[in-house]
Design goal:
The protein is of the alpha/beta class. The chain has 7 domains: 103 residues, DNA repair protein MutS, domain I (MutS, DNA mismatch repair protein, domain I), CATH 3.40.1170.10; 149 residues, Nucleotidyltransferase, domain 5; 135 residues, MutS, DNA mismatch repair protein, Chain A, domain 3; 122 residues, Orthogonal Bundle (MutS, DNA mismatch repair protein, Chain A, domain 3), CATH 1.10.1420.10; 201 residues, 3-Layer(aba) Sandwich (Rossmann fold); 79 residues, no CATH class; 33 residues, no CATH class. The strands form 6 sheets. The protein has a 7-stranded mixed β-sheet with strand order 13-23-24-27-21-28-29, with helices on both faces. Strands 3-4-2-1-5-6 form a 6-stranded mixed β-sheet, with helices on both faces. The longest helix has 33 residues. The termini are far apart. Bound molecules: adenosine-5'-diphosphate. Adenosine-5'-diphosphate binds next to α22. The site of adenosine-5'-diphosphate has 13 residues, from α22.
Amino acid sequence: MQLTPMMQQYMEIKQNHQDCILFFRLGDFYEMFFEDAITASKEMEITLTGKNCGQEERAPMCGVPFHSADTYIAKLVDKGYKVAICEQVEDPATAKGIVKREVIQIITPGTIVNQTMLNEKENNYLASVYINEDGAGISYCDISTGELYTTSIRGTNAEGALLNELVKIKAREVIINESAENLISVEEMKKVTDAYFNSLNESYHNIVTVKEAILKQFHTKSLTGLGLEDSEIACLSLGALLSYLFETRKHNLSHITNVTVYDIGSHMSLDKATIRNLEITETLYEKRVQGSLLGVLDKTHTAMGSRKMKQWLREPLNCSSQINERLDAVEVLCDEIIIRNNIKESLKRVYDLERLAGRIACGNANGKDLIALRNSLFMLPELKAELESLDNGLLNGLNGEISGSLMEVHDLIEDAIVEEPPFTVKEGGLIKPEFSQELDDLRFSIKDGQTWIAELEGKERERTGIKNLKVRFNKVFGYYIEVTKSNLDMVPEDYLRKQTLVNCERFITPELKEMESLVLNAESKINQMEYEIFADIRIKIQEYILIIQKASSAIAVIDVLTSFAHESVALGYVKPEVNEGGSLVIAKGRHPVIEQMIKDGIFVSNDVYVNDSDSSMLLITGPNMAGKSTYMRQTALIVLMAQAGCFVPCETASIGIVDRIYTRIGASDNLAQGQSTFFVEMSELAYILNTATSKSLVILDEIGRGTSTYDGLSIAWAVVEYLCNANNKIRTLFATHYHELTSLEGSIPGVKNLNVDVAEENGNIVFLHKIISGSASRSYGIHVAQIAGVPKTVLEAAQNKLTDLESGKYDGEGMLAFGSNVIAEEGEHKELTKGKGKKLKQSEPSQEELQLSLFSFAPNPVIDRLKSLDLMKLAPWEALKILGELQEAAND
Ligand code: ADP
């Protein structure tokens, strides 16, 4: 049996869009068939039905009304499907045979432009990655705003740098060359990015066609002008991106006017763990903005400003002159309170110009969008006047980016578009009177007819004596006269019955129908003419897209700088001094988020002094809950804020530029993926040790806790030695429960002991949160357990055990128990090192004593092997391997 003609048409179209769910337009519905219908009905939670398709069995089918399709499409795209929209492309009334249909657009997670599907505070990026033996090219674009960036990565650790870059970009969708799978684990990339991945076949990466596509897009004759002449891999990723966009959008990409070629080294590099651990844009567990650094700093007023703020915090700068440029601008805005407030007031009334420009360029903008554009442009002269009065290079430059000619666009919209246009653009009600003579004439020609109809109700009531007679309109019958059943006897003879309802009847008269056809014909002409005028205006505005984009990106930056200034004044931040040196000196530093959270209490400020020579490794000991982690994170956040161009929470700060911040803190996401805590910890550690440079800042919170005390301590020890070696001292803040490590101060140059001050009052401890020099006296783990609500009997037993251990009353067996995980997790190690705490003081053991006490119990091959290791000569991966073997031996 043959398929019906319509089904044949469906099949042909579906054949070319196998990877999409095909929304097939049938009248007022989009229908899906066969497999698509089964998948979509499940995902969108709609009923699955069937349609006769000419075969014995009905075709599975489901459908959604076209006017509410957006919500359904959003659901599917959100789940990672591609949706192909197939429309009727000729008028069914005039079509001969089956109506012609075509796919007019493919919507994928990274190519959404529809406002209702986008988050205004978040960029929606599509990233294109091209990988070969030379390295990787990355390009990414937000099609809703027209922003486009490209870069390339080469050299050692290209894979790590690529993953970090993808984490930073946070693309919704990534397209990648098929052959990349031979060189890199695409699965790993998927895990790290959470994006939807599509492999593109090699036809997308032909260097000749790729170059042509780029030159065509940017209307230029050579790649030199774009800064791309030396980077073939960047071009390959960029060209594939443009082709993919063109194929899915099926529309010109005229609002993509420029490509920003950037160098990865120009930004501070932050890996996924660090972005998460420092809670830069969202909190660690609840994923909320409130409680993150962004939550404190983001007081931007425009959507593009808030997207820019996120970008700046995710990619702080590495170049002191650029950072100081931003800081100087923030300083001026801090000082000029009135001007700053005026700027904020202007910004409040600026809409999302970037996305408005995108919609105008794609031909999607409606009347409301143009009014939003006009209202935004209206604010610009005021904003410019304020900026002009400021004495600052960056701000004056940004002002120059906002072109005065945008007022022409403002005036055009002001003259043409009514104040409150409808959402639709084809049903009239858009264009102001006096904008087009032709339109006015047409409107005038139906005035009489409209008045006649408007007055008909009154006239007929009088003529017939029916007091509640009504003249109404609906789409099916047009105009009609309605009379209730009780008055039917008064209906005159010239009324023609059209419809009978329960309580009333509807009539028409020949005269009314004549007038109606006159009016409706003219109205449809008017609507058509309004649409044409509107479309013309949209095209005229398209000529200004580039300058609208320039202005909006300048406004985004002004918004962020103003927000930085506002918060800096409100929260008592100071301008940091940023330099190319190797020190970080912070006086009375505070944690920007925690100080806001403990508003009732007082945040205790702390100093930081760390450099790349005699004080590079700060070993911080102290009880749980004392504030070690807060201190380390605040140091990292202050550096990050300073390099993003923001003032910082402290009294003074001198920041020697940091190229990367690394953090090894707590558990990680990977735990859920079946990897052991210790393995994850060691992988993260290996990554840090392999890639940190002399300009990096490393934050280590408890290394080695996932294994036995001796393993853990040995690794931590070796890590200190590695990060502090004579040739390369990497600035590190290391919080540890291994008090044994504190004996390294003095023996390894650069190691400095710090601890968090604690007072004891009547057997209770009070955390003072003050960082002081020297090592902690005790761990106070039992006190913390008490605060946390551990039962009294357990606390007492623990106290007794501790007393035994501290007084040396343990045997070999006891010592083994001490070496196990349980007690190590509590952090209750025997105190072996010097104590500068308030009450307990112990004498400092010599290095020999220390080693002896650690490894003095029964001879053991595992320990012998451990002792024989030369840690300075071991690569981290070797250490890990040996560790595995040792653990195996210990388990035997
Ligand atoms: P640790 O890492 O030593 O276990 P945290 O840094 O997690 O301790 O601090 C525990 C809690 O103590 C924090 O959540 C905060 O409420 C408080 N705290 C830490 N540092 C300070 C400080 N400098 N001033 C005030 N409160 C602090």
